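#structure-requests
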Amino acid sequence: MQLLERLWQDVDLAEAKSLRQAFGRFATGVAIVTCLDQNQQPIGLTINSFSSVSLDPALVLWSLVNHSPSREVFESAEYFAINILASQQQEIGLNFAKPIADKFQHGTWKLHDHKAPVLEDCVVQFICKREQQIAAGDHQIFIGKIEHCRHSNQRPLLFCKGQFNEWPEYKEVS
C-alpha cells in the first residue's frame, strides 16, 4: 500500500492571510465569552482562542484582538463567562461573531450570580474571575480563575479551515 504524498506549502510569515490559513488547520472548539459592562449590560463575542491553563489553581485563557470594540469592557470587567458551544448552536456562534446590536436575543441566556451571562444548552459554562491580562503581539490574553463550572453531554461545535463542523459520534470516557 502506497502512502499519499504530502503536499506541503511554505507559509510566508510576513503575509497575515497565509499565516491565518496555517493557524486555521488546527481544529478548535467554539465558545462565546461574555461579561457585564459598567452599566450591567451583557457583552459577548465568539472566540476559538480558549484554552485550559492549570488545574491547581483552576485557570483558563482566551485572547482578544487589540482593535476589538469590546476590549475596554473586558479589561475592566471583574468576571467573565466562557460558554463552549454545542453542535446545534452554530447560528448563535455566527451571530456573536458579528457587530450586531442585540446579540443576546439569540439563544437562552441567564445571569450567573450577577457576574456574567451564561448560555443554556451549551457544552460547558465557566464563570471566571479575571486574574491577569497579558499583551501579546496584536492580541490581549485574558487569564481567568474558574469559580464555577458545569458541563452537559452535548456534542461540541468545532471550527476548522474557516468552517463550523459537528463533532462525530463519540463515547464518554470516565
